[in-house]
Amino acid sequence: MRSRSIVFPLQLAAACLFALTTFSQTRDKVRFGKVDPEDFAATSFEKDTSAHAVVIADIGSSEFQVERDHFELTYKRFKRIKVVDKNGYDAASEEIPLYISGQLEEKLINLKAVAYNLENGKVVETKMESKSVFTDKYDKNHILKKFTVPGVKEGTIIEYTYSVTSPFYFNLQPWNFQNEYPTLQSEYSVTIPEIYDFVFLKQDINSMLTVKTTVDRQTYNVTYESNGPTGASQHGSFSANTVKNVWTAKDIPALREESYTTSLRNHITRIEFQLSAIKYPESPIKPILGNWQKFSEDLNKDENFGADLSKNNGYLGDVVDQLTNGLKDDTAKARRIYNYVRNNFTCTDHSSLYLTKPLKTVFSSHNGSEADINLLLIAMLRRAKLHADPVVLSTRNHGFTHELYPLKSRFNYTMAAVTVDTLTYFLDASRPYLGFGRVDMSCYNGHARMLTAESVPVYFNPDDLLEQKSTFVMLMGGEGGILKGSLQQYPTYFESCAMRSSIKDKGKDAYFKGKEKDFVAETVISGVELENLDDNEEVLKLKYDFDMKADDAGMIYINPLFTEAMRKNPFRSQERRYPVEMPCVMDETYTLNLTVPDGYVVEEIPKSAMVKFNENEGVFQYLIQQSENSIQFRSRIKLNRAVFAADEYNSLRDFFDMIVKKQSEQIVLKRKS
């Protein structure tokens, strides 16, 4: 299977390094079927108590071999795992992807899987039967072979081995040296004849990999397609150098997802390969990888992507003409068409680079993937004689694209771009809450491509997405220990989007009834007013009154931030060795004017504080003052960046520790005696 994982060469570590208890077996002598009672001795990992399983050995190889008269790839893997507790049972399940194209397919052979348990001092094995292997279709070019090793319990040693033969010489398997479990030893060897030129895309976290390279020479007797003018097939015998690389890593920490992480695939220790060119003897070099211009050209001509965009698409004529009738401004035309598509088509999938059905079918069915809907939008914009092009990108959870190499597998999302005069607007009609020219937060993942003839790079960087929020609260006393307040708020743009969606689903009354539960004390919300509810291009303006029962035996305890207080630090790990990747730059301001109720005095008030992050890259303000019977309070959290390097983690965690601590403090009012 062509890897769907995204790799990006980062020199960043990815989780705490730890010392694992050494198993009694010698790692270099681990062999399938050779398990002794001594191998069950060690079951604790003192420096990583969260390890529910440990990979003892994960050994793989890929090699080009001649099958009949053509090259095939043979991929072999052997893996041994020890299950530590019940939470590690998932380690007994495996999925093996196989690639299919036309009549050709990869084949899984020699699969063996065994579970070993120690019973009364003896090793008892449970073998997996062939009928326990299931096949699932993943997409039109991939199937998954799935199995679960039987007989697993706490302390079980699992191992399996298999081979995959592939007629696809380009599909050199990638290798992950790191996963959710700690690994004692991982090794991958790849042998490539010099006729195939592969780009190695290595992602080595904390320089854990070592590599050994050897060169040999072999003779091959194959039929191959000539790259000359005739393109005829030739059969012959030739000798070629072969290069064998063996990558090894030991004592590899588990990689676990923490808050504000785009995708662990951006940080995992991994190597993958991309075929760049083919050079057979006495033949010119045949480029495979291409460049970004060829990347754009191929997608725009692809029947499953952009081929229909260059056609007349007459079936769109009536609708487009009706939408643009009377409009002279091109931006107004684009906005009208965009709003029509966004409001009248339902998205069924938000992770599709290619069309799932023809554009005409998308138009008639009024649904499809984000690629279907946005390519239809482009077709309609072009029908209106507007300059529109596709934009392809990778969403945050899919991982980074590779800016240097045009790898289609790195992309999983298609949007539209329309250019009017010198302004380009990026459009995504697949999300009903997005305004014209807005891009969803999940798409702010760096490098993308606009598929013009020049294949223009564009960037959606989270550091460029500012999300501002302001809240103003007035609070005063009422009768019977009731505090009466009013709130006015401008949420961030994407909070506004989420609120519109929830209000549409639940209804306004039910939505704000649920918001009452966010207050610590018993609270009733009334007099709700909403502005811009139907204007997706603006943030909401929210107003409501609230009555809060706060008297407790003559004392009133008030957290001045009410529902807006940050109650937990999102950074809980003691150490983090890959970046903090927030989706946006934050700037949140909160203001409170409190009139002390009649009959009460201020017993306790928090102290003001201000903390800067990295001098001028962020600030937390907590400013409070009392003047006779009124209290003014202001809190602001502002960060000037969204992405922070691993070595900034401790400072960032301390910064948020201060925020959580201060925002938990209370104003205490005491009834006069």
TrEMBL record:
Residues 1-19 form the signal peptide. Residues 319-396 form the Transglutaminase-like domain. It comes from the Bacteria. Pfam families: Transglut_core. Gene3D superfamilies: 2.60.120.1130, 2.60.40.3140, 3.10.620.30. Keywords: Signal. SUPFAM superfamilies: Cysteine proteinases (SSF54001). This is Transglutaminase-like superfamily protein. It comes from Chitinophaga filiformis.
